[in-house]
Amino acid sequence: MTTDNSPVNAPVNERGERLITHLRHVDLAVPDYDKQLHFYTEMWGLSPEVTDEGIAFLAAEGSPEQYSVRLRRADEKRLDLISFGAATAGDVDAMAQRLSSAGIRLVAEPDTLQTPGGGYGFRFFDNDGRTVEISSDVAVRQHRRIEEGESIPVKLSHVVINAPNPEATVAFYEQHLSFALSDTLWSPHMGEVMWFMRTNPAHHSLAIARCPHVSLHHASFEMRGIDEYMRGSGRLMRAGVEKVWGPGRHLAGNNTFTYFLDPHGNTIEYTTELEELDEDTWHPHLYDFSDPEVTDQWGTANPMNEFVAKQSFNDPDRGVFVAPPV
């Protein structure tokens, strides 16, 4: 089954291109900062730039982005923000003007960024109260090719968010940010439960899941290839990191997956081979995720059960409509 995915009044620049180009980073507030910092660097494989203020900027070695994860020491666990890139400062201004004109609350007007790499950007609240950042002109980080057998992330692949009214959240990202629908998951008992959305030919850089509350579903990191993905998954399992689901290969996106829990219960994923789409010819599918081959084409992952579903719900986000302090 397919469905129409035409964005309504899509925000594009004078070149006819989307104003948002790609995913930059995901920022987390964490109560046990030292434990999380150790996990994401020593276990997960990110490279740290640490400040004296209890903030760490963690880079993926294969990515030109200054950082893929920001950790901030805080009393409560929350998703601080999700950051997306834009091509030019003019596109940033156009996006801010568009959102403001639509009555969407800006957290900060476009200005010079004070984070690594600088750049120009602004923040706003989406319809669920998440803080979202849009930026351009961030300096490129010195990065490198990940070598064969090296089981560390190449880059941040995608972020999945939970929403109590996901249809409204999907419409928000389509209409205001020009995300396009790639595929949808549904079941005969639950109806539609997850929407995969893209802002470039990658099958999804954002997905939206049905959940009783606003929260982070998971953040996913791209590995060099199948071998490196399996080596990384195995390294974490041998180390006793709690595995939620996998290893396997999804049908929507055709990407591999192994999901783990970080020390504060955020689900994070190793993946590889996420599908690249021909956007001119692509038509979204409606996949029945009660079919085992939809959730895992290989049949190697543990079954999708209540434990997997519960972990993906995460804790309710305490940062809704509250901008992070930095």
TrEMBL record:
GO terms for molecular function: metal ion binding; methylmalonyl-CoA epimerase activity. The keyword Metal-binding applies. Coiled coil: none annotated. Signal peptide: none annotated. Pfam families: Glyoxalase (PF00903). The keyword Cytoplasm does not apply. GO terms for biological process: L-methylmalonyl-CoA metabolic process. InterPro entries: Glyas_Bleomycin-R_OHBP_Dase, Glyas_Fos-R_dOase_dom, MMCE/EMCE_epimerase, VOC_core. It comes from the Bacteria. Residues 22-137, 155-273 form the VOC domain. CDD domains: BphC5-RrK37_N_like. PANTHER family: METHYLMALONYL-COA EPIMERASE, METHYLMALONYL-COA EPIMERASE, MITOCHONDRIAL. This is Oxidoreductase. It comes from Nocardioides pocheonensis.
